[in-house]
Design a protein that fits this description.
Belongs to the cytochrome P450 family. Pfam families: p450. GO terms for molecular function: heme binding; iron ion binding; monooxygenase activity; oxidoreductase activity, acting on paired donors, with incorporation or reduction of molecular oxygen. This protein has a single domain, classed as Cytochrome P450 (Cytochrome p450, Orthogonal Bundle), CATH 1.10.630.10. By secondary structure, it is an alpha+beta fold. The chain has a 5-stranded mixed β-sheet with strand order 1-2-8-5-3, with helices on one face. A 3-stranded antiparallel β-sheet has the order 4-10-9. Strands 6-7 form a two-stranded antiparallel sheet. The protein starts with 12 loop residues before the first helix and ends with a strand. The chain is 48% helix and 8% strand. Helix 4 packs across helix 6, helix 8 crosses helix 10 and helix 10 packs across helix 12. It binds protoporphyrin IX containing FE. The site of protoporphyrin IX containing FE has 24 residues, from helix 10 and helix 14.
């Protein structure tokens, strides 16, 4: 799969060109076997909504494994790790966590998110420029929010942020990733066992006392929510700010009319599509798609960045336009596995970017754009640091 980017905010040109030729393509995986790559928006959504395509990890092959690692996962899902499960097991794990992430539940969190955002921006302002926006703002805000929601002590962030970054990094060995997973799992398991003794009103506490999920399942789910809950939104806050700072006309439009903010967040999600290597699936039976036969067991990768830049779905898809409607984008996936945390991520992005733009009218990059360290080596695209001044 083409992975070399020419420009930091655009998917690899080789990937985008595929949309001009066909909706699906043969894809040679790093171990040499041939599978399929689907780039067209309508087909990506159709496959993600099609129960004949399995998400089970024992069948999945990932398109961008760690160097030297086997793309074939080959192991059943870890307990609670619902992203690797099919129905009905998937539903059993997902149902108990749907409530806290609905739009209404997230709306109730907004004042607290606003407070966390304001506190971090005030601290950054007090320290004075230049600042690393990732360390001062983009990483701590979603980390603190997900910690409070789950009931994970924020004081332990150094450990879980480091282990989380290892878990999603493609530069570390498979053994290091397994070690990071074991560390996170042990950490969450301790918290879950503690809740069994002293139940609390946070999400871990409610999963312990209000569901029939076992300790290992709640711990695994906790690892997934904790890591996906901060790495992703941090990536979007950093990269979204970089996108706006390098598109001054869009930044000016947004500053002139803050009512554009919710739409601008959707557009940034579409344009940047940080889940940049695509989503793996495996057909359980032979399936015909667009006149091509995909055999049961063949590896299929759905490219979310290519789908979100498909000209058949979005006019001038390579243009960042905060006034457009980006409805229907697949930055959060689609179908039964569509992101659990999407409403929370939207709220954090809207509140975070809104406060940053209004509170720092002179915000600018403190280094040339070429010097911004990009997280191309992580499963979620983003920036490792974003030096800014104001
Ligand atoms: C699933 C993207 C934020 C938790 C997904 C999927 C994508 C995605 C593409 C689908 C994966 C698949 O189909 O295999 C994003 C992006 C985010 C974000 C771009 C931020 C901008 C969050 C947050 C949380 C979260 C804040 C938790 C609080 C999850 C979980 C799943 C998931 C648990 C698995 C859902 C399932 O399998 O049913 N996310 N996510 N994500 N996301 Fe997010």
């Amino acid at each position: 799969m083409p992975t070399r980017r020419d420009a930091p905010l655009d998917p690899p040109p080789g990937l985008l060109r595929l949309n001009e030729t066909a909706p699906l393509h043969r894809l040679r995986y790093p171990d040499g076997h041939e599978g399929w790559l689907i780039t067209r928006h309508s087909l990506v959504r159709a496959v993600l909504a099609d129960a004949r395509f399995s998400a089970r990890s024992e069948l999945k092959r990932v398109p961008a494994p760690r160097p030297g690692a086997d793309p074939f996962i080959g192991e059943p899902a870890l307990p609670g790790w619902l992203v690797d499960m099919d129905r009905p097991e998937h539903t059993r794990i997902r149902r108990p966590i749907s409530g806290p992430f609905t739009m209404r539940a997230v709306d109730r969190l907004r004042p607290r998110i606003r407070q966390i955002v304001d506190e971090h921006l005030s601290a950054m302002r007090e320290q004075g420029p230049p600042a690393d926006l990732v360390a001062s703002f983009a990483l701590p805000v979603p980390s603190l929010v997900i910690c409070e929601l789950l009931g994970v002590p924020y004081g332990s962030r150094a450990g879980f942020q480091r282990a989380g970054a290892v878990l999603f990094s493609l530069e570390v060995s498979a053994a290091q990733a397994t070690e990071a997973m074991a560390e996170l799992d042990g950490f969450l398991l301790d918290l879950v066992r503690h809740r069994r003794r002293r139940p609390g009103d946070d999400l871990l506490g409610r999963l312990v006392s209000g569901t029939d999920l076992g300790d290992e399942e709640i711990a695994g789910l906790g690892v997934l929510l904790l890591t996906a809950g901060h790495e992703t939104t941090a990536g979007m806050l950093g990269l979204g700010t970089l996108a706006l700072l390098t598109h001054p006309d869009q930044l000016a439009a947004l500053r002139a009319d803050p009512a554009l903010l919710p739409g601008a967040v959707e557009e940034l999600l579409r344009y940047l599509t940080i889940f940049h290597f695509g989503v793996p699936r495996t057909p359980l039976v032979d399936v015909e798609l667009e006149g091509r036969l995909i055999r049961a067991g063949e590896s299929v990768t759905l490219s979310l960045p290519a789908a979100n830049r498909d000209p058949a779905a979005f006019d001038a898809p390579d243009v960042l336009d905060v006034t457009r409607s980006a409805r229907g984008h697949v930055a959060f996936g689609y179908g039964v596995h569509q992101c659990v945390g999407q409403n929370l991520a939207r709220a954090e992005l809207e509140i975070g970017l809104g406060a940053l733009l209004s509170g720092f009218p002179g915000l600018r990059l403190a280094v040339p754009v070429e010097d911004v360290p990009l997280a191309a080596d992580s499963g979620f695209y983003g920036v490792h640091a974003l030096p800014v001044a104001w």
